[in-house]
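Lab notebook, bench 4. Continuing the backlog of folding jobs that were queued last week. Each job is logged with the same field layout so the records can be merged later without manual cleanup. Today's entry covers RUFY4 protein, a 165-residue chain. Filled in by technician R.K.

JOB TYPE: sequence-to-structure
TARGET: RUFY4 protein
LENGTH: 165
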Amino acid sequence: LLQRLAALAAAAQEEARQSRQQLQAQRQEVARLQEQLSRARQDGERWASALQRAQREALEREATRGAEQARQQELIRDMKGRLLELLREKDALWQKTEGIDTPMPSPAPRDAGLCARCHKDFRLLSRRYNCRLCQGKVCHACSVDVGKQGRCCLLCYQQRHPQAT
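JOB STATUS: finished
OUTPUT FIELD FOLLOWS
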């Protein structure tokens, strides 16, 4: 009986030792899992922070894009308005000039020191040109270069080339 009790005690001790080992292994496993959980929570917080930052930046970009789009639409509206104004102005000018015939170029004035068209003085920096058609003396601004033939005054050029006006 004593032997049997000793054997049962030995078996109980062995079983207790194995239970302690299992308990120790389970504690280590719990510690490892808690560490993983802690890292996962930190990663989750980082990802949540990154997501909030990305959402905030997306909202800011959307607001900026919306403001820019509104500015562009306003600019387009203004440009269309200006275009309509210019078209009306062009039509009004066209109607005013509809009945006007192009005048014949006037003969060149005898004063060789003035432009025949704008009456500007010829100086060192304002060159004098002879119109190849009416022989008038004109400045650079009042003449047109017609290639190898030389220059002619604007009135003569407009008479010869009505599609250029």
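OBSERVATION: Residues 114-164 form one domain.
SIGNED: R.K.
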